[in-house]
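Problem: given the chain below (174 residues), write out its structure.
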Amino acid sequence: TLTALPLSPKAVPFHPKKMNLQQYDEWCQYPLFVITKVIEYLQHKHSIVLSPFSITIDSSQFYLKPKTKLGLGSSAAVTVSIITLLFQWCEKETDNLEIFFLACSCYREFQKVPASGIDIASTLWPGWMEYSAPEKFFTFHELLQINDFSKVSKPYIHHFTVSPSLHFMAVYLK
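Solution.
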């Protein structure tokens, strides 16, 4: 669940440029990082300055108990949700490909490890799918230079149907 509301007078203003992520609980650091990156992306790429807002993120369904993640793609779901919400908040149209590359960029930069993007792809294009990562993932600064996402190497996504009688499926990622 993700909601954005106009900033209440009692809220503490969020200043991305003045923020030190280390001062926040480790469970808040990643969403704040993504929010900061999306605000910066919208400002630099689309010349949009967001009006103040309040955001509530509830990813509790992705946890077995407090601080025990189920490993069901909660980071991807939160990333895609934040990006989509902030684009909608400023009424900026986008497509799943731009969201995919921005989400992958945030995820890879924060985690500091390469990621295939499959969690993000399955959040954006749900269903049974065959997936191959794009030839290139972009850094945040490279994303700012892309004017037409239809001209970049895309992830390969092929949806298929699965028989309702199928009880087991193996997936191999190379």
